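Why Ribosomal RNA small subunit methyltransferase A? Reviewers of the renewal asked for a concrete example.
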Amino acid sequence: MSVRAKKHLGQHFLKDELIAQQIADSLTETGYKNVLEIGPGMGVLTKYLLKKPLITHVIEIDTESVEYLQAHYLNLANRIISEDFLKIDLTEFFGEEQVAIIGNFPYNISTQIVFKTLENRHQIPEFSGMFQKEVAQRIAEKEGSKVYGILSVLTQAFYDVEYLFTVPPTVFNPPPKVDSGVIRLIRKENYTLPVNEKLFFRVVKTAFQQRRKTLRNSLKTMNLSDNLREDSIFGKRPEQLSVQEFISLTSKIEKDAV
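Here is what the prediction returned.
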């Protein structure tokens, strides 16, 4: 019995054992004992996770995959969560315990997985996984680059991001049309911001919605005082600002509103 890859779920099953092992080995295994694999499919990555001194859990929305895993991975027992990762409450399954996230992520929901991780960062110290290469690069990119954007800034505000390696389409069934990239996020020691986080998210998103314009123009909708808009930072375009500068910009906007 094997599982048929379903297009509507964005499934591309990894068939290369060496790459599966490399992804499993990208976990540092420090500061947590639980790991949650998203979208295990037929368990090519799962079997390497099960060899580690971690408690492996998997979450899978595809009922055919769930049946396959139940039949072939008896040592997973009751740690197969047959739900949608984007909709679950982690505390329901892990209480307050820390849990690392790993997976060969379906391309169509990969950025939502990152946003869900950021929302739950107090519980997710580490995150390792495979994305479409372009998305992986965007998450890891630094300021000054054309692909640096919302995802880069918001992720790097809370995690140290490392692009690990590129994976060709040939190692998947069915092969995707593009290369994939594996990245690792390790939560920063201080993962809360010294500014209002909601405002920080809003500033970053608003700035990049018109990324070719200077901040003076792209942040017009935020009704900033003329005095603040004279600050030299407003002459820059969003891609020129480091994460630290976005934090400092948010702080200035916060004080301006008082």
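The first helix runs from residue 17 to 25. This is the kind of structural detail the renewal will allow us to pursue systematically.
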